[in-house]
Structures are given as C-alpha cells and as structure tokens.
C-alpha cells in the first residue's frame, strides 16, 4: 500500500487515485475535477486539483468533501499553495493533501498553507520530508497553522 | 533603524541552519541541481560565469556602521576585498565559495542581516527613497511600511514559488526617488480629500524584455489594509500568472492580458475574503514599526550661523564648495545636509566599494551621521544627517578615500549592472562601456554644462541596470556571438515615468563614446535655456538625434 505523511507520521494510504478514464469510481477513490463535477451526490467523495484548476468550483461543497488532493507535478509551480490556503480560509476542514513532486524544503510552507497530508512521488523521501516540517519554529505571517501574524503576538 | 527582537533573530538563525543543511545535502549529492537552484536563489546565491555571486539583503537600503564593518570583514575573509551596491540597494559579493556561503550567512545573522529572497521567483527586497525621513518634500516616512512589508514577505508560505520574481517599492515624497512605476507593485503614500494619509497602489510595472509603467489599482487605501491588499494582488498573480514562458511570467503581462479593470476586480474579489482578517494592521503594529524610525538626536543649530560659516568655507575652498553644491542635498532639519557618497569614480566599476572604504564609511557614519548609512538604487551611498559645520572635515576624508567625486546626478554618475564581466546571463559587458564613457567625459565643467543626465547600462534584457528608464539607456545585445549595444532615449524614473525609445541599429563597444558624444552635442545645440537633456528630447523627439548619430560621413 502507498505511504504518506499524515499528522506528523508516516502511515499507509487508505485512498486510491482513480484512473482518469475509469467509468465508475469507488467511494475510497480520489476523482479528477471533471469526474468529481459530474457526480450527482458529492458527499464523501474526494477530488484532485491540478495546477490551473482553481478551487472555486469546490466552494459550495466544502462541508461534504472528506479530502482535497492538490497535485504538484513540478515543485516550482506554486499555484497549489494558494489553492490550499484559500480552501482552508473558506472553511474546508477535511484532509488537504499535497501530492506529487514537491520537496522536503517546501514542507513548512505547505503545512502553513493548511496541508496536513503529504504524498510524495518518491516514497523514499518521506522520512527526510518529515524532518523538513521542523525547519522553523517562528513565523511572521498569519497562516493556517498560526492564524495570528507575529505583529499581533509580539509582546 | 529597525532592530531585531528574539523573533526576528530566531527566524534568521533558523534560515541559516536550513541553508547549511541544504548546501550539505547538495554537496553530498542528495539534492539535485534543479532542486537546489530555487533554494540557493532564495538565499541570494547565483552560480555565475567565474564564481558564485551572493546578494546580501539591505532592507530598503538601510545599514548601520556595525553591519558595514561586518561586510568589510566578509569581503576580506571570504571574497576579494570589495563589494558591489546593486540597483535594488542590495550588496553583492562576486567571489564567495559555495561551501563557505553558510558561514557567510551566519556572520550576517550575527549583525541582523541575511540574504533571504534577494533572488528567485519570490517577493524581493522592498526598496524605497534613499532620503526617507530626511527629505524636504516628504509627506510621510515610508520606512515603517517597508519594514511591515519586509516582515510580511519574509518566508511567506504562499508566495515562495511565484511565476517570476516580484518587486515592491514604496515612496512617500513629492518626487519619486524609488521608481515605483517600474515595480511589480508600487506603493505611494498619499493624502485623500480629507487629508488622511493612505496608500495608492500601482501594479504591473516592470522593466525587462517588455518594459511597462505600472497601472493604478487602488487610488487610496487605508493603511491598515495594506497587507491584506498586497496579499490579494499576490494571490491573483500566483494563481493566474503565466508559467509556460518566463518572458511572459511577470505580473505586468497578466495585468495587460486581463486588462486593468478585470485585474482590479479579481483583486477586490480575493480581498473580500481577506479584508479585516487578522493580517489587517493594528494601530499598535503601525506604531511599533514607526517607533524604529524616530528622529535621531538632532542638535538645535543656529541655521543662519551654519549657513554663513558654510558659505565662507565654500568660498575659501572652491573644490569643497563645488562638492557641497553637487553632492549634498537639503535636509528637513535646519543646520543639516544629506551627503551623497559617489561610488562612481572613473576607473572603478560603478557601485563597487572596497573593504577599506566600507570601514571608513562606517567610521564616518559614527562620527558624523548617527552611525547610519543608506545604499541607493543609483548605486551610491548616503550619509543622511550631517551637520553643515562638519561637512568640511567629512569631505576631506571622503576625498582621500576616492568617495567625493562631485558628479552626483551627472552623466558619469551612471547606473551599470555587473554585465558580462561577472554575470552569466549577460549578452555583453557593461563595465568597460561605463568606463570608456566616464574617461571620455571626465571634464567636470563639461559635465555640469550638460546638466543632470541619467545614463543607465544593462548587459542584457533583464535590465538590472534599468536602461529603459535612463534618459539615455544602453543595452548589451548579442549579434551572431558578438557584443553590441543598443541605445534608447527619453526614459525616466520620475513621477512622469516613461520608457525610452530605441534609437536605431546597435553599435560596437568602441563606437559607444562617439555615439554618446553625438547625442550630447545634438542636445547642446538644440536645448533652450536651462532645459535638461530629457526635456529637450521630449520637445524635439528622437529624429534629430537619430540623424546625427547615423549620418553618413561624407
Ligand atoms: S542586466 Fe543582464 S547582464 Fe546585467 S546583471 Fe542583469 S542579468 Fe546580468
């Protein structure tokens, strides 16, 4: 079974990514945005966003979605950081998963943008990525992990 | 100036540790070239033609004497004994060793400095007016807002992998000395109809391959909304900026493609979500930032006495008098002047400064200017608070050290990027062109007769030398493997900002002094009364210059 980082630990994945051409999808499968949009009942159904697929179509369903996965096909493409953070700001409380080719050195940023699950294309890098979560203990900005900016906490 | 507390220090120290680890992983082969690239860039490190180049952040151009001495030490210990002031008010080292860069960063952290986000596709060092706080035409000191932006943009989790680099400038004076129209975002402090000072926000300006003057996105914004508004602009850009072509990736292209109104609407839509959220600046946050930029302990000087004493000195020593006239500027406080130190002596690369000069400037700052120094985007330095009565001894020491060339604002005070001598992106060398022009036009009387002229040189389209907004701009181009130079005229970085127009076919390096000579003599023949070069150009257009320069010899 594929593995990923969740809640600060490496665990086995209980979701599968759906083949984009598959005709039907099981409940534990992550659908592409187009497939997901076609579902009549979106309750309990997970969705994957690619760069260029801004999360706006999800906004009306945030309470029903258990998992939004955001793909990073190349680590230099930072659109997913905004997608994730915006979903959280609009109240999404399910699992927010980064997947693909992000690197260890982006872990702090991802976590701050609200990602709480990390699925790397190369699983052998998971241990190292876990360490990346501890790079910084203090931050200037408000973000999902720390809703108050430093200027409101300085004392 | 701003002083770190334990929070700032923790962040900068942890950043050094992080980069030390990244460098070690790279050198051990555990981090690929491609992965290390943005990580090192966001710590200011380029791998250049001959050696790495390290760009040290000088937030909005402010340094204290301790920091200057540390930089002098670093240039000696880790480099070749000199540093370079860049057009983003930063300081560059041209010869550090990759494996020693973490040690350099640790040295910097010891004096509250860093190299964070001085390069890469992220929010870069915020720049401002080099006369902030002391200018006579200032509405409000922009530096507290620069510091607020510095903190917000430092290691911002959402905006570290933007489509392209992102530059912000702030100005708070009648005259724009920060070139805010040529930035991705320009912030101008302005009063509204009822006299309250707020922020005018411009977006989509920039130089590079497609130079664009920024568009007004918001005419007046309450100060407390500054960060949420900037965050909204950045979010629209991060999600929608092009990533398929690096020459079309800057925000200026997005603003053009969407149209200013649609862009503004998208920003306002994001802003609806962020407005009044926790990132809204509290009064306390603004007060806290301002508390670092209060007035130094100025003496109540007898202005009339100081003036007559200075006038007598100037009359007795005309060389000193000339320097006072050319290189010093009116100060807000009676009895003081702002002093420009010229890093544009003929024979030295524009903006370069040696370790000994750095240490001298540190001493002079302690002695004459409350221990602070500023770097300028024209690649000079400034001592902002000098008593008129102390100008003479200051000048004597500057002169001995080669820092008193009285050319501030004149032709030889040119902006020049490092170009092909150092930079691996260059199409052509820029320093030898600057030197050839400086040597050709080193007669001071002639320079003063020409009046203020901004001549800017870039070694390639990236336009680090701001050639588009020089009255005369020179751009290095590559023609079948040979170095050529294109000339443009009529650029301006002032409030009436404009982009220069290309004169015509490019020239060889040897031709450049003659070409400049022809441009200048055309101007001298055509100018009316006290017109400066730019005004004559604007009145007569490019044709007379073109005719003269490309005239066939008969
Ligand atoms: S303008 Fe070009 S040559 Fe000059 S420093 Fe910038 S990238 Fe290098």
Distance between the termini of chain A: 48 Å
Per CATH, the class of chain A reads Alpha Beta
Structural class of the secondary elements of chain A? alpha/beta
Note the quaternary state here: heterodimer
Strand content of chain B: 15-25%
Tell me the strand order in the biggest sheet of chain A.
2-1-8-7-6-5-4-3
Q: Give the averaged pLDDT of chain A, no decimals.
A: 93
CATH homologous superfamily title of the largest domain in chain B: Sulfite Reductase Hemoprotein, domain 1
Helix-strand category of chain B: alpha+beta
Q: Hey, which two chains have the biggest interface?
A: A-B, 38 and 40 residues
Number of helices of chain A: 5
In what range is the share of β-strand residues of chain A? 15-25%
Q: Any idea what the CATH architecture of the largest domain in chain B is?
A: 2-Layer Sandwich
User: What can be said about the biggest beta sheet of chain B?
Assistant: 6 strands, mixed
* CATH structural class of the largest domain in chain B: Alpha Beta
In the CATH hierarchy, what is the architecture of chain A at level 2?
3-Layer(aba) Sandwich
Radius of gyration of chain B: 23 Å
User: What spatial form of chain B do the alpha-carbon principal axes imply?
Assistant: globular
Number of helices of chain B: 18
Major β-sheet annotation of chain A: 8 strands, mixed
CATH topology of the largest domain in chain B: Sulfite Reductase Hemoprotein, domain 1
Describe this structure in words.
The complex is a heterodimer of chains A (155) and B (554). An 8-stranded mixed β-sheet of chain A has the order 2-1-8-7-6-5-4-3. With 155 residues, chain A is an alpha/beta fold. Chain A is globular. Chain A contains 5 helices and 8 strands; from the N terminus they run E-E-E-E-H-E-E-H-E-H-E-H-H. Helices cover 22% and strands 22% of the residues of chain A. Chain A starts with a strand and ends with a helix. Chain A has a single domain, classed as Rossmann fold (3-Layer(aba) Sandwich). Chain A has helices spanning 33-38, 79-89, 107-112, 126-132, 150-153; strands spanning 3-6, 9-12, 16-17, 29-32, 46-49, 67-72, 95-100, 117-120. Chain B has 554 residues and is of the alpha+beta class. Chain B folds into 4 domains: 6-109, Sulfite Reductase Hemoprotein, domain 2, CATH 3.90.480; 135-290, Sulfite Reductase Hemoprotein, domain 1; 303-400, Sulfite Reductase Hemoprotein, domain 2, CATH 3.90.480.20; 415-550, Sulfite Reductase Hemoprotein, domain 1, CATH 3.30.413. Chain B has 18 helices and 21 strands. Chain B has helices at 6-27, 33-41, 65-78, 101-109, 143-153, 226-240, 251-258, 260-274, 283-290, 303-316, 318-327, 355-368, 391-400, 431-440, 444-450, 512-526, 533-540, 543-550; strands spanning 45-47, 52-56, 62-64, 82-85, 91-93, 127-128, 168-171, 185-191, 197-203, 215-221, 328-330, 336-341, 352-354, 372-375, 381-387, 415-416, 455-458, 472-479, 482-489, 501-502, 507-508. In chain B, the strands form 4 sheets. In chain B, strands 16, 17, 18, 19, 20 and 21 form a 6-stranded mixed β-sheet that branches. A 5-stranded antiparallel β-sheet of chain B has the order 1-2-5-4-13. In chain B, strand 14 (372-375) and strand 15 form a beta hairpin. Chain B is globular, with a radius of gyration of 23 Å. In chain B, 56% of the residues are buried. The model of chain B has no long low-confidence stretch (mean pLDDT 95). Chains A and B meet through helix 2, helix 3 and helix 5 of A and helix 1, helix 2, helix 5, helix 6 and helix 9 of B. Iron/sulfur cluster (SF4) binds next to loops of chain B.
């Amino acid at each position: 079974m594929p593995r990923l980082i969740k809640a600060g630990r490496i665990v086995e994945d209980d979701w599968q990514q759906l083949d984009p051409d598959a005709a039907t999808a099981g409940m534990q499968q992550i659908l592409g945005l187009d497939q997901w949009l076609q579902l009549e009942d979106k309750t309990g159904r997970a969705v994957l966003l690619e760069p260029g697929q801004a999360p706006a179509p999800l906004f009306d369903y945030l309470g029903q979605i258990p998992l939004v996965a955001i793909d990073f096909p190349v680590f230099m493409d930072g659109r997913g950081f905004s997608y994730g953070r915006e979903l959280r700001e609009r109240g999404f409380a399910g699992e927010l998963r980064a997947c693909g080719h992000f690197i260890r050195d982006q872990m702090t940023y991802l976590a701050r943008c609200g990602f709480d699950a990390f699925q790397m294309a190369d699983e052998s890098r998971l241990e190292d990525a876990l360490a990346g979560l501890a790079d910084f203990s203090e931050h200037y900005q408000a973000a999902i992990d720390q809703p108050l900016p430093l200027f409101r906490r300085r004392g | 100036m701003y002083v770190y507390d334990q929070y700032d220090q923790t962040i900068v120290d942890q950043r050094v540790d992080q980069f030390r680890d990244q460098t070690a992983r790279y050198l051990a082969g555990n981090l690929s070239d491609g992965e290390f690239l943005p990580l090192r860039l966001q710590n200011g490190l380029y791998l250049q033609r001959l050696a790495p180049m390290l760009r040290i952040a000088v937030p909005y151009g402010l340094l204290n004497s301790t920091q200057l001495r540390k930089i002098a030490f670093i240039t000696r210990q880790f480099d070749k004994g000199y540093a370079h002031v860049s057009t983003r008010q930063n300081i560059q080292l041209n010869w550090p060793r990759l494996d020693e860069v973490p040690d350099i960063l640790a040295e910097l952290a010891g004096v509250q400095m860093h190299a964070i986000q001085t390069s890469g596709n992220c929010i870069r060092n915020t720049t401002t007016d080099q006369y902030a706080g002391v200018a006579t035409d200032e509405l409000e000191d922009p530096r507290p807002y620069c510091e607020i932006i510095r903190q917000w943009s430092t290691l911002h989790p959402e905006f570290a992998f933007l489509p392209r680099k992102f530059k912000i400038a702030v100005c708070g004076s009648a005259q724009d000395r920060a070139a805010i129209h040529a930035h991705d975002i320009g912030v101008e402090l302005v009063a509204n109809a009822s006299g309250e000072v707020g922020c005018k926000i411009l977006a989509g300006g920039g130089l590079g391959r497609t130079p664009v003057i920024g568009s007004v996105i918001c005419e007046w914004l309450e100060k407390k909304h500054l960060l949420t508004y900037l965050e909204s602009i950045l979010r629209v850009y991060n999600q929608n900026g092009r990533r398929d072509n690096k020459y079309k990736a800057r925000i200026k292209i997005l603003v053009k493609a969407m149209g200013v109104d649609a862009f503004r609407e998208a920003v306002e839509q994001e802003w609806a979500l962020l407005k009044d959220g926790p990132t809204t600046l509290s009064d306390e946050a603004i007060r806290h930032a301002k508390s670092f930029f209060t007035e130094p302990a100025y003496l109540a000087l007898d202005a009339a006495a100081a003036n007559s004493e200075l006038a007598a000195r100037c009359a007795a020593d005309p060389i000193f008098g000339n320097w006072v006239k050319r290189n010093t500027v009116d100060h807000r406080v009676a009895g003081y002047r702002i002093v420009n130190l010229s890093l544009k002596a003929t024979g030295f690369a524009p903006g370069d400064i040696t370790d000994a000069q750095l240490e001298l400037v540190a001493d002079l700052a302690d002695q004459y200017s409350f221990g602070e120094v500023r770097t300028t985007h024209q690649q000079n330095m400034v001592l902002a608070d000098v008593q008129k009565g102390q100008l003479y001894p200051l000048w004597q020491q500057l002169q001995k050290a080669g820092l008193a060339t009285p050319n501030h604002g004149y032709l030889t005070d040119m902006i020049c990027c490092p170009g092909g001598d150092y930079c691996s992106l260059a199409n052509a060398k820029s320093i030898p062109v600057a030197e050839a022009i400086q040597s050709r036009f080193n007669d001071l009387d002639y320079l003063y007769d020409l009046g203020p002229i901004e001549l800017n040189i870039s070694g390639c389209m990236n336009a680090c030398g701001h050639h588009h907004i020089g009255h005369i701009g020179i751009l290095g181009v590559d023609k079948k493997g040979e170095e050529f130079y294109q000339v443009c005229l009529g650029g301006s970085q002032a409030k009436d900002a404009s982009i220069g127009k290309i004169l015509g076919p490019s020239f060889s390096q040897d031709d450049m002094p003659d070409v400049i000579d022809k441009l200048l003599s055309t101007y001298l023949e055509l100018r009316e009364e006290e017109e400066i070069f730019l005004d004559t150009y604007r009145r007569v257009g490019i044709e007379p210059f073109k005719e003269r320069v490309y005239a066939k010899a008969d």
